[in-house]
Model the fold of this input.
Amino acid sequence: MKELTLERPILDDLHAQARWLSLLLAAIALHVFESALPNLGPWFKPGLANIVTLVTLVMLGPRAAISLALGRVLLGSMFIGTLLTPTFFLSLSGTIAATSVILAAWRWLPGVSLVGISLLGAMAHMVAQFVVVEHFYIQQPALYHLLPPMLLLSTITGWINGALAAYLCARMRP
Done:
C-alpha cells in the first residue's frame, strides 16, 4: 500500500489566503451594514464595500479583487435575504460593471490614483444599475432623467471611498 504524504502549503500562500478571507468578511460586513442604512435615492447606497475591493486590488491583485467583489455580493445577499431578487441582480450588475472598470483603469491608466479609479467604478456601477432597471423592470426612457443627480451622488461617494481606500492602503503597507 502506498503511503499518502501531504505537502505543507507555503506559508506566504496561507498568509495571502487569510488576508483575502479577512477582507472578504469585512466586505460582507459592510454590505450587510449598508443594507440597513436609509436609501439616498432609488438603488443608491454609498458603496462602502467597494473600499475593501480597492484595498484588495492594491494588496492582493486583480484576481483577488474580482473574486472578493463577486463573493461579497453573493454571500452578502444571502445574509440579508435578497439572493436572486431584483436587488441582487442590480447589485451584481453594478458590481460587475464597477469591478471591470476599476480593473481596466488599474491596468491601463497607471497614473490614476485610487480616488480616480474609485470615481470611475462608482459611475460605472450607477450606469449599469440604470441600464438593468430600464431594460428589465421599468422600461421607461424617462428613467434616465434621474441619472445626472444619481451620478453626482456617485461621484461624491466614489471620491470618499477612494480616499478612504488610499488611506487604508497607506496604513496597511508593511
The two ends are 47 Å apart (CA to CA).
